[in-house]
What we know:
- The protein contains two helices and two strands, in the order E-H-E-H.
- It is mostly helical.
- It is elongated and about 60 Å long.
- The mean pLDDT is about 80.
Amino acid sequence: MTIGQYLRPSPKHHPLIRFYHPRDFARLSREGSKMGFKHVAAGPLVRSSYHAEEQHLAAQPETTSPDGSPGETVDDGQASRPW
Length: 83
């Protein structure tokens, strides 16, 4: 999960209504973790691409064999897709 702050790119864009304090982002990060998100990036400069690879890897299910030993990861060819 990514939680960021809107920053007005120019005077022609919607004005900033509130700038959130870093402690607000820390609280939101804790709440996201409590909700079960495996990776939460929260901060004023965080964008959806922020640590995208780490978030993707954290969201992958752990693979184990029926006996509980480490399973084998199978490459389905989707990892390199741009979508």
